[in-house]
Amino acid sequence: MKNIFITTPIYYVNDVPHIGHSYTTIIADVLSRYQRLLGNNVFFLTGTDEHGQKIEKSAEQRGLQPRELVDSVVLRYKELWEKLNISYDYFVRTTDEQHKRIVQEVFQKIYEKGYIYLGNYEGLYCSPCESYFTATQAVEGKCPDCGRDLVLLQEEAFFFKLSAFQDKLLAYIKQNEQFVLPHTRKNEVVSFIEQGLEDLCISRSSISWGIEVPELGIELKNKHYIYVWFDALLNYITAIQYMENEKVFQQHWPAYVQLIGKDILKFHCIIWPAMLMALDLELPEHVFGHGFIYQGGEKMSKSKGNVLDPNKIIEEYSVDAFRYYITREIVFGLDGTYSDVNMRQRYNSDLANDFGNLLNRTLSMMGRYFEFKVGKSNEAQLSEAELILKKEVHDLEIRIRQNMQDFKLSIVLEDIFSVIRKANKYIEDNMPWKLYKEEQIDKLSNIMIQLLETIKVVTTWLSPFMPQTAQKVYEQLNISWQEKNLYNWGYFKEGMLLNKPEPLFPRKE
Ligand code: ME8
Predict the structure, then answer these.
(1) Which of 121, 147, 380, 484 lies in the 20 to 30 Å Cα band around 247?
(2) Helix or strand run (H / E) with residue 45
(3) Cα 399 to Cα 408: distance, rounded to the nearest angstrom
(4) Which of 94, 263, 308, 325 has most ligand 1 atoms within 8 Å of CB, for mutation?
(5) Where are the beta strands (DSSP E) in 131-285?
(6) Distance from the first to the final alpha carbon of the chain
(7) Which of 21, 48, 226 to mutate to test ligand 1, by most ligand atoms within 8 A of the CB atom?
(8) Are 42 and 1 in contact (CB under 8 A)?
(9) What domains, with CATH codes, occur in the chain?
(10) Per-residue confidence (pLDDT) for residue 304, from 0 to 100
(11) Any idea what DSSP says for residue 221?
């Protein structure tokens, strides 16, 4: 049994969750459920990023205190995760006392190690907006937000010595081929580092909605708050009690995979690893930067009014159909789109026709020919053509294990559905109704058992992707969810009773 630690980004609570947030979280859930299925000890972490200017501003615009805003939006996340059947083990909020305390402890530790120092930040400052902008962000020397004049300001601030890790990081990424995934993103990170890393300003005096820089025993002109990204990235170790509970921390760290969208690649593949190196901690095994979901070829944005609400899709098609679409239709790692036409097609052809129908017709025949009672099995009597499914199912496991390890989720589903279609063809090829008419009951029973075993195994492999559906299938097959090793062949014994079929995915016209 291995310890497997899986993380998602922690999402900003300046607005309600949309399809993009559910994308990463569903993938993390699929990977977690898959690892649990193999018998591993999983710790699945998700949560929310609640500090910083973005949240402060958003609250102000709504006439709320930041605390009121974050407390209400965090509920929307938790509700959605419940609806989507997200089996997280811990939900971290950066406003948690534990998180805040440990972030301060870590800040102090890195300071003592000499990788944080007090310096001067120089930038273009907009005083009404209380924000700094870089020369490229400024629009003709004016504030990109309010259009007013920017002034060159200097203030004391803390810096993280990112530059000190440039060579070490580059060497690490080049030597560890599997660290930044997929490989195209690795190249992106490498070329960015090769351009040279500058030290990073990690404190702000212009905001107050954040974690205060701890008492370091030095005299400061201003009150300083920790930069929101420095605070947020540490969630991955504060949640597992770094510096406070060595046993828990050692059990989980280093993470197996940290899932992120391609938008936050530099934070996770440059800043975060450098922070870990500053703490003498190991780096995660994989950081996977997946692609973005677009709608109609466009980036989703509030102003365009094309932000997809997962709640609507779930209402129309069911939670599992949504989970299936997201993992099957979009190649993990690449960008993809959500389209209702494709969704409907996947739903009707893959889920209703192929999978739903396989279960339905198998159980109907079991009712008609055997009154739902499993008959005798004698594989020695089966010809090669009749044994073909067993071989397919056996080979499937080998491919699934490899592809899951490589995070090729859509290929896993493609493979599973290929076996499902073969099982449907198996029915047509072997014509159980003909055997029944000819009273070849032993042969018929054998063939039905091949089908039942196949359904049980494919359902088990599908369970990380579609947990509710798997449960429904198990109920119809009269199998307890708690049974172990359901992905193995050889469960059904003579005399076992099955239940009546009920449609899994009623067709959508
Ligand atoms: O960046 N397609 O939070 P965030 C796919 N708080 N995934 C998408 C997506 C889309 N269209 N839109 C968003 C933050 N995502 C920080 C993270 S971590 C220490 C701090 C997903 O609320 C994707 O995972 O903006 C992306 O990385 C994340 O949401 C950004 O969420």
Answers:
(1) 484
(2) strand 41-49
(3) 10
(4) 263
(5) 131-133, 151-160, 180-181, 200-201, 203-204, 225-226, 257-261
(6) 46
(7) 21
(8) no
(9) 344-477 (1.10.730.10)
(10) 75
(11) S
| b/e code 290-327 from CB counts within 10 Å (16+ = b) | bbbbbbeeeebeeeeeeebebbebbeebbbbbbbbbbb
- pLDDT per position as a tens digit, 114-133: 999 999 998 898 877 767 88
Rg (CA), the chain: 27
**CA nearest to 229, candidates 275, 172, 188, 187:** 275
Distance CA 483, CA 141 (A): 66
Strands annotated E in 277-431? 286-290, 293-294, 336-337
Tokens found for residue 154: 């200097």
SS3 32: helix
Tokens (6 digits) for 435: 């055997």
Per-residue pLDDT at 268 exceeds 90: yes
Residue 85 CA to residue 468 CA, distance in Å, equals: 8
Separation of alpha carbons 473 and 502, rounded Å: 9
Contact residues of ligand 1, CB 6 A cut-off = 9-12, 20-21, 23-24, 49, 232-233, 235, 260-261, 263-264, 292-293, 300
Instruction: Identify the pLDDT of residue 308.
Output: 83
Shortest CA distance to 129 belongs to which of 176, 60, 30? 60
The position carrying tokens 């042969």 is 443
- Beta strands, E only, 293-367: 293-294, 336-337
